[in-house]
Amino acid sequence: MTRQDAIDLIHRYYAAFNAADPQGMLDLVSDQVEHRVNEGGIRRGKALFAEFCAHMGVSYREELTDIVVFATDDGRRAAAEFVVHGEYLQTDPGLPEARGQRYVLPAGAFFDIEGGRIARVTTFYNLADWVAQVSA
What we know:
- This protein is an alpha+beta fold.
- It has one domain (3-135): Nuclear Transport Factor 2, Chain: A, CATH 3.10.450.50.
- 32% of the residues lie in helices and 43% in strands.
- The chain has helices spanning 3-18, 22-26, 46-59, 127-135; strands spanning 29-37, 42-44, 60-71, 77-88, 102-114, 117-125.
- The chain starts with a helix and ends with a helix.
- The mean pLDDT is 95.
């Protein structure tokens, strides 16, 4: 895989995200995908990633803008920076109560790519910033 192939893969992943197409996202990850979320646990495998996507689709409505993707020359690793524009729809356990609050949050992600699919995605954002925005 080339650097451009990796960049294209990540752009397709985020296009599926923005289209609220979890199956499109699942089609781009490996069966053994490792999903690491900011200040959370590690999910391993496509089934747990699918559960996460389903949960996110109920609790949040999000769109990513200003997406910039970087990749290594060999296409094995990539990173993305973007802005999350969201609405908090359903209360997530341990987080503030959802009342349809809107938020704008800078975020980023790191990827491992194997066999033309995403093998790891690690997402980072400032949770304290998000909590402050939805608590205001």
